[in-house]
Structures are given as structure tokens and as C-alpha cells.
Design goal:
The protein is globular and about 45 Å long. It has 185 residues and is mostly helical. 58% of the residues lie in helices and 0% in strands. It has one domain. The chain contains ten helices and no strands.
Length: 185
């Protein structure tokens, strides 16, 4: 069994993690600028959701908060989410060095997929069904994934439409979770 509190301590002391915290500047979707500032805002959202989480879920989510965007500085901009050079893949590879929790690894890898699919839907009226099927297949812990999407997607610079789309799409595909559209902050 993984001690997620210890995992959090280990990750947040890793020199690679520390080296990337101050990367970034204000941009669309991230007016806070740096990875460090984004983490702080997402942690605030996590704390607002805390009463609905078990201790295990809280620490797992905290690890996700601190890993999901930390490797943007090293990523190749514009590559696909599953490309090994994407920030999601780099973060997933980093996390995999410390834990083998397939749910955590899938969430880090696919954390931006709902936004990408929403953008496709918004632009053309539909999304890539193969990518949607892969998301639905690879995410097994929908409580954890949707909780993460809530805390990451309810930051100052992000519209709520992608989250609304995600919850609607999850419901259409009969995804079971204790989190719902009513939880959008």
C-alpha cells in the first residue's frame, strides 16, 4: 500500500520538481503565471473540497496537484497529450518513478484530455470518439478524476464550460461518481 503523504513529501523535495516551480508567465487559462502560483490556487480549491474526501483521496489529489503541470518547462509545446514529450507524459513518467498506482498515472496522463475534447466539440460540434473512448477506458477512479478536474478546472483563468461538458458527457456514458456538475466552483 502506498503512503501518499510520504509520496507527496518525496516528490516535493525532488530537485526536478523544485527546478520547474517558477516556470511560466501569465497567459490564457493561467493568469497566475508560474507553476508554483497555479499549484497554490489549485490547493485552495482542494481545501474547499476537503470535507468530501477521505484522507487517502486528499493526499492522492495533493500529489496530482503537485505533479500534473510541473513539467511544462520541459515539454514540447503543441504536441499531443499522449506524445512522450507532452507535459502530461513527462509528469506521468516522473510520478511513475515513485509509485505504480495506475489510477494516479492515468489521471496525470489524461488530465487535459477533457479540455481538448471540449475544444473539438465547441469548434466542430463533435469530438474525436476514439480519444473519448480512450479517456473513458483509461480512467477507472472517476471520483478521483472528477475531483481533480474540479480543483484544477475551477481556477480564476478558466471558464467552466469544459467542466460542464465533462460532467454531461460522463453522465451520458453512465459514469458513476459522487461528484457532479453541482460541485463546479
Amino acid at each position: 500500500m502506498i503512503d501518499y503523504r510520504q509520496l507527496f513529501e518525496t516528490i516535493t523535495q525532488d530537485p526536478r520538481y523544485l527546478a520547474n516551480l517558477d516556470w511560466g508567465k501569465a497567459r490564457a487559462g493561467h493568469p497566475e503565471g508560474t507553476v508554483r502560483a497555479h499549484i497554490a490556487e489549485v490547493e485552495g480549491n482542494l481545501n474547499r473540497l476537503r470535507s468530501r474526501l477521505s484522507d487517502d483521496e486528499y493526499w492522492r489529489l495533493l500529489v496530482l496537484v503537485h505533479t500534473h503541470d510541473t513539467f511544462k518547462a520541459e515539454a514540447v509545446k503543441g504536441v499531443a497529450i499522449l506524445d512522450p514529450r507532452s507535459h502530461a507524459s513527462l509528469a506521468c513518467a516522473f510520478l511513475a518513478e515513485f509509485c505504480d498506482d495506475v489510477d494516479m498515472l492515468a489521471i496525470v496522463q489524461y488530465h487535459d484530455e477533457p479540455f481538448a475534447l471540449w475544444r473539438q466539440t465547441n469548434a466542430s460540434g463533435g469530438c474525436n470518439e476514439e480519444r473519448l473512448a480512450a479517456l473513458l477506458e483509461n480512467i477507472r477512479d472517476w471520483n478521483l478524476f472528477l475531483a481533480f478536474c474540479l480543483v484544477d478546472g475551477c481556477t480564476e483563468g478558466k471558464g467552466r464550460e469544459p467542466l460542464l461538458w465533462l460532467f454531461e458527457t460522463a453522465a451520458l456514458h453512465e459514469v458513476q461518481s459522487r461528484f457532479s456538475v453541482e460541485d463546479v466552483m
